[in-house]
Design a protein that fits this description.
Bound molecules: alpha-D-ribofuranose, calcium ion
CATH topology: Inosine-uridine Nucleoside N-ribohydrolase, Chain A
Largest sheet: 10 strands, mixed
Shape: globular
Strand order of the largest sheet: 4-3-2-1-5-6-7-12-10-11
Number of helices: 13
Number of strands: 12
Distance between the termini: 34 Å
Order of helices and strands: EHEHEHEHEHEHHEHEHHEHEEEHH
Helix content: 40-55%
CATH architecture: Alpha-Beta Complex
Length: 328
């Protein structure tokens, strides 16, 4: 019996956050100790409500949800509801989870969980405000941290909320830079260089609808509902047919690091001026600083999609790969 890996998912659900939660919940290797929400795509209370909707859909309301930071460390909070809809789930109008409760104290939950286990990993797929606050409050607790994976930043890819900045690090640049400068461990940076390559296309969505007919849970239908708004945003904003699903790649990479490759480097996040929120990756080691990040630059997109679909729809990866061979 394989030992499950304990994780916390710190998130801002959010459409792609929801897909990441679904992948984590469908992966037996993981023990999701709790979900913490942070101001990002939507305010943390709405994010927590959306997390409950996904937990209810997955039959996992046993997973606790903790609400976190209402605003970035220093900056004004700016949501991404233009991208994810006012409800954070693509204006899909999914019903509230009648059961399940939202607890306060995300930062305390993160610290308590770190201190109560030998090895806990954190998959941070929103702004890093909660992680920064936890680190400021009790750095010693992070000696129990196994791995920190952060969906955020970009190395050479253009930004998605400024020419150079990715939303999670732009929303709270001070929080992001504090974590990079103070964690004392290499952060696995799943940035836009790799996540932009992971696109949910109309063909894959159609495959999901067909898979619904063979399964018991209408996962494809839920994904179609919450991504319609996101498809329209991607066409308007980036001329992309489909939608980039950033966050589930952070989960897939944690499950299978071999899906991606990259390099170690010192990284800092710009906290002011025209390039606010830019992750500056010192690839050539100009600053002679110890690497504090493992920056991902390559991704096996078919391998990711095969893992993602096989887990969400309970299919063999071999069977999924056969169909992906037609549509990717
Ligand atoms: O820039 C993409 C990231 O910002 C994703 O995590 C998305 O959910 C938003 O949080
Ligand atoms: Ca997110």
């Amino acid at each position: 019996m394989m030992e499950k890996r304990s994780i916390i998912i710190d998130c801002d659900p959010g459409i792609d956050d929801s897909l990441a939660l679904m992948l984590a919940l469908a992966s037996p290797e993981l023990s999701l100790e709790g979900i913490t929400t942070v101001c990002g795509n939507v305010p943390p209370d709405l994010g927590a409500e959306n997390a409950l909707k996904i937990l209810k859909f997955m039959g996992r309301l046993d997973v606790p949800v903790y609400q976190g930071a209402e605003r970035p460390l220093w900056r004004e909070y700016i949501s991404a509801q233009d991208t994810h809809g006012m409800d954070g789930l693509g204006e899909s109008g999914l019903p509230k989870a009648a059961e399940g409760q939202v607890r306060p104290g995300a930062v305390e939950f993160i610290l308590d969980t770190l201190k109560s286990r030998d090895k806990v990993s954190i998959l941070a797929i929103g702004p890093l405000t909660n992680i920064a606050l936890a680190l400021q409050k009790d750095k010693e607790a992070f000696s129990h941290l196994d791995t920190l994976v952060s969906m955020g930043g970009s190395f050479k890819s253009h930004g998605n909320c400024s020419p150079v900045a990715e939303y999670n690090y732009w929303c709270d640049p001070d929080g992001a830079d504090y974590v990079y400068q103070n964690l004392g461990r290499k952060i696995h940076m799943v940035g836009l260089d790799v996540t932009r390559r992971v696109v949910l296309t109309p063909n894959i969505l159609e495959y999901m609808q067909q898979l619904d007919r063979e399964g018991s849970r209408r996962t494809g239908d839920l994904i179609r509902k919450i991504t319609r708004f996101y498809f329209d945003f991607h066409w308007r904003q980036e001329g992309v047919i489909g939608c980039v699903i950033n966050d589930p790649l952070a989960v897939a990479y944690f499950l299978r690091p071999e899906l991606c490759s990259g390099f170690d480097a010192y990284t800092a996040v710009e906290t002011e001026g025209i390039s606010l929120g830019q992750s500056v990756v010192d690839e050539m080691n100009f600053w002679r600083r110890e690497p504090n990040s493992h920056v991902l630059t390559q991704v096996d997109t078919v391998g990711f999609m095969a893992l993602f679909l096989s887990r969400l729809f309970d299919k063999s990866e071999e069977e999924v790969r056969r169909i992906l061979g037609q549509i990717m």
